[in-house]
Specification:
single chain; alpha/beta; Enolase-like, domain 1; TIM Barrel; 10-stranded mixed beta sheet; 3-stranded antiparallel beta sheet; 39% helix; binds magnesium ion
Amino acid sequence: MNRREMMKGLGVSAAAGAFGFLGSKNEAMAQTYSKATNGLAPLKITKVRAIPTNPQGQRLIVVKVETSEPGLYGLGCATFNQRATTVINAVDEFLDPFARGRDVDTIEDIWQTAYTSSYWRNGPVLNNALSGLDQALWDIKGKRANMPVYQLLGGKCRFAADCYSHSSGRDLQELEDSVEKNMARGFRHIRIQLGGYGSSHLSESADFKEQGFGLPSDTLMDARPYLKATPKMFEHIRNKFGDDLELLHDVHERIEPIDAIRLLKELEKYRPFFIEDPVSPEQIGYFRMLRQQTSVPIAMGELFNSPHEWVGLMSERLIDFIRVHISQVGGLTVARKIATLGEWFNVRSAWHGPGDVSPVGHAANVHLDLAIPNFGIQESIVFRDSTQEVFPGCPVVKNGYFHLHEGPGWGVEINEEAARKFPFPSDPGFWRPVRRRDGTSVRP
Ligand code: MG
């Protein structure tokens, strides 16, 4: 007998008795509860705690929510690599006492009340902590229903999530080799970068370092070499691999908005699938101008905090793909609403899926990918063996598609003993400053 059958077998009155609901008024309440949960007993949150682990070379944080049913718990992603220990504190010191005693089934209400429990809100630390709690409650609801979360969202719109892989190289030959490897793995969509973001290895003189400005570890990004090299990169890869391959590219802000407009116009003839983050979130006023001048599809949004930041870009149809780091915005509860908003304006999803998302978070991405009509593309990752040891049930990429490990909830578990083998590194994990050659700071 599985856990669910056992709880159903207890029956209404036994379950009500077990949870202290016996008595005329309380018994009626228990009956109502029981009908609403298909015979399952009402459950309370008993503990919320953050689990840190580093098996992927990133500071991953997963939140575990325990319930009044022995052995029933949920997992949620709360990963914020650059401020990891601050998120752990927010979970353990604030969300745990906030959530204890609350009804595990009231996900929306818990989201709304936890969101405003700090009064000031919409910051990345608190949103990530909230996501850990929120996603764990969806996991619990799926386990209680004995269904994957995508079933709770309306069921599959597709058999798996088409995804993109990453190719980069310090020169065109290295990049070409990397693209070839990804195509051989079955990918139809490949993000191409010449070196790291902004091709900063092409920059020549870090004059600021010679003058002792900033720290020696600060990085150089010169916009000119990047702006020259990027159209040549597209030209090379298009000529080499033809028109069928879908090409993506991430500008990662870093350049002046007016240069971004010129760059996208130059790239239009290579038919990119999308160009990501052409300007920083602080410069979204440029999107109208950009849209008037080029039909290159635009992806934007991974740095946004508040769901309200997307409304104007979507309703004015200024972007084509919505990038969201789902834990960064507060979890599945809010991300599925952003998806629905996009559906109304034909903006497709492209949830952020890099190494600093835990496998629980990647699973949440894919569950939502499967259930929404306006799915666009999913960023994919190769999980290390160590990550799969810590997180049994990681989603798997086959032939360029992300497949879930089908099971109740997210379908991903955690081996806490294995997690402890991969502690966080001692450095706090800042995003290293990016500077122009004279030392001026650049949005990263
Ligand atoms: Mg990006």
